[in-house]
Amino acid sequence: MPSPVNSPRSDADIFSEEVMADPYPVYRALRDAGPVVYLEHSDVFAVARYEEARRVLGDWEAFSSADVALNEQFNHYIGDGILRADPPLHDQLRGVLSARLAPRALRDLAPDITRRAELLVDRLVAKGSFDAVTDLARWFPVEVVGDLIGLPHEGRERLLPLLDANFNCFGPDNARTQASFPRLPELAEYVMAGATRAALTEGSMGRAVYDAVDAGEIPEAVAPWLVMTYVTAGMDTTVHAIGHTVWLMAQHPDQWDALRAAPSLVPQAFREVVRYESSVQVFGRTARVDWSVGDVTVPAGARLAVLYGSANRDERKWADADRFDITRDNLDHLGFGYGLHGCAGQALARLEGEAILRALLRSVSHIEAGEPVRHFNNILRGLDSLPVTVITD
Amino acid sequence: MEQPEKTGHLSVDRGRCEGYGMCEQAAPELLHLDEDDVPVIDVAGISPTQKPLAEAAVRACPVAALSVRTASAPA
């Protein structure tokens, strides 16, 4: 990697549990240090400010996603996957996903997702006390998205830990990444052997991938990996977002009251959850050309770590950035990324998160949370457990 | 009365647009969505007073499908 010429430097390990427990003071220090900051621990330039993060994500020609993972081994493993691909291959793959995931394609799904959310939430609310992560957040996306992809029920219960391991592998070459690599074959086995063309439900998003092969839209060889994309990208990200939703509403009863008074704020409230506690905290890019930003020149070939979770708290962009405020203008948060590789499933994630919020709003006047247990992943921010008691009207 | 000068116009990349509709939420005065959720630009050009609104619509697009093109830099 080219040596950082005149960049500010930091010895913070943003992938340590110490930092991950509360990354925001470290993020702020990185933002204050400069528009890009060389992280000695991870041999990568952190892009921690909003404007620069947006610039990098929005220009795939200047900033390649070939190094979307912060280690070589996993970039090699992903191969021609959509996350690393440039146009025109990227656009072929993206077209297959967006044909099923764009808002217009999801319109008919909303009633069913709403009904499922109400069934699950009503059952838990009737209990009074439950775990918002293990009883709620971990169930909903796996069932909803699992059915939409058309996955066999067999083995779904093993998926979340495997998907978590898959996300870890996007991190730097640290102990968490090394412990996760041995789990990848089990995930590949589930998708390649368990979610075959024949096993995927007819009419499902997964089957549509093979329909696209038959229609000559994509090469056959990429099909299982596109099904893999559905599986790996669409579940634990939403699990963490739903966990954060309940956690933040419990911590901010005034915001819950405001939402109860104005349920039309639900989309804005879910966006604020994703801004405030972004499920995806970081992805990698590489500068294809020299990039001059402020007083710093990042040399061509330099690896960048785009810090979504920091950009979404940048005080240069957001007034009172550390305040959770469901009424703020948050349309342009970066929680789903941005640009060419922006989350293809963001409309579905919103549908799920908003359905859970609306289901809770129907009867819950107050959420009391116990001590959350933090989950540690190289890429994702989320909770392992959140005991809650809900008070009904 | 003199017409205010136009600073550019909004342009949609239809190949990139996936119909999230954030642009309409940001700037309903400048555009609306058609039945396929693709934005239809309702103004011939952007006046200086409309510029912040147009920029907000551009920023709101999650897939960078909307841009402001200036008169001197055609597509």
From TrEMBL, chain B:
InterPro entries in the record: Fe-S_cluster_ET
Organism: Streptomyces canus
Name of the molecule in the record: Ferredoxin
Keywords carried by this UniProt record: 3Fe-4S, Electron transport, Iron, Iron-sulfur, Metal-binding, Transport
Keyword Transport found: yes
Keyword Transport (UniProt): yes
Top-level taxon of the source organism: Bacteria
Gene3D superfamilies: 3.30.70.20
Cofactors: [3Fe-4S] cluster
Gene Ontology molecular function terms on file: 3 iron, 4 sulfur cluster binding; metal ion binding
